[in-house]
Structures are given as C-alpha cells and as structure tokens.
Amino acid sequence: MFETILDEEERGQVGIGTLIVFIAMVLVAAIAAGVLINTAGFLQTQAEATGEESTSQVSDRLQVVSQSGNVTDLNITNTSTERAIDKLQITVAQSPGAGNIDLSEVSVELIGTGGQVSGTLNGTENIDIFTDENEDAVVLTDSGDRAEITLNLNSTDGDFGYNLDPTNSDGGIEAGDSLSVTFTTASGSSTTTELRVPTTLTEEQTSVRL
C-alpha cells in the first residue's frame, strides 16, 4: 500500500524558502486589498458629496411669489421730479424640494438698460419673513414660509442704488422701464424674474404690481 522512497532526490521539499515566498504573497495580497478598499471608500465619499452639492445647486433655489414697487416722486433732473419706483418688494418662497435657505447669504443682481448693480441681502434690513414669529429670522425653513425682500433703488441712501440715467440724481426706475432681478443662493442656484413698470404712474398710486 505504501511505497518506500529510497532515492533522496525524489523526497518532497518544504523548506524555509517556500514559506517566505508564501508569506510574501499573502502580504502583497493584503496590501493590495487595503489599497483597493481605501480607494473605494474615498470614491464613495466623494461621489456622495458631489451628489449632495449637485442636488443643492438644482433644488435649493428661491421661487418668486409676487413683485411690486413703491411709487414716489424722484428727482429725474436737477429741476424736475417724476413719478418713479424707488423700492422693490419681492415676495419669495422655497422652491419645491429645497432645503433651508439663508436669505442673508443670497446675492442679488439687477440688470437693465441703465447698467448692472449687484450686492448681498443685509439681514433684517432687507428681509421680512412674515410667516415666522421670530422678527430676526432670515432663514426659510419650510415650504410654507414667505419672505418679503426689499431692494432700495434710491441712489442717495439705497443699498441697491440704480440709475438708468446719469442725470437722474435719485435713481430708481421710471414708467415704461424694465429690470431683470436675479437671486443666487449660497449653493449657487439662481432664480431670475423680469420686472416691467407700467407706462403710466399716477399721483394716486403709491404701489404698483410689476
């Protein structure tokens, strides 16, 4: 049943060299597996972060609910005044699927025939969340929240002083003018609304829809 091996050259050899080679192969395989696992984890984390940022950039945007302007007498020239709009009141809300939006981090850009003006909303001076009992609130946290953003276009004391005409000492926008307003949230999502002033602004009007 068993065969006796008399020739020493035919005997199996399992020496220290074979053991070293085996251990080296195991170590190399373990290191390679560790590198692959770490790389996969890093790629997964980066993919999740990129996905969240992309989602925020698309969904975390403002939705314009209504827009109006305050009508008053502005100095159009050094010798005459004219009915014009010196302040914009724009009501905004979260767009569907949006997360919390901090309005104090929202930038605003005005573009019209008179040029371009840009700036950042300045807390409660520009913002009134009238669906929140906290008077100092500047963050939209719910789809039912509504905030009124006021943009002062007066060149003398306004934070968004806008002059269509260099000879217009007070600034603002006049009857028949149009203006593009763009809101950009901290995530980079933008919302643009077009404002068009009626061709006639009467003395009886103190506010007008745009």
Question: How does this structure look, described?
Answer:
With 210 residues, the protein is α+β, with helices and mostly antiparallel strands. The chain folds into two domains: 15-59; 60-209, Immunoglobulin-like, CATH 2.60.40.3580. Helix content is 21%, strand content 34%. The chain is built from one helix and twelve strands. Strand 10 (178-184) and strand 11 (190-196) form a beta hairpin. The longest helix is centred in the N-terminal third of the chain and has 44 residues, at 16-59. The radius of gyration is 34 Å and the shape is elongated.
In short:
With 210 residues, this protein is of the alpha+beta class. The chain has one helix and twelve strands, in the order αββββββββββββ. Strands 1, 2, 6, 8, 9 and 12 form a six-stranded antiparallel sheet that branches. The protein has a four-stranded antiparallel sheet with strand order 5-4-10-11, with no helix packed on it.
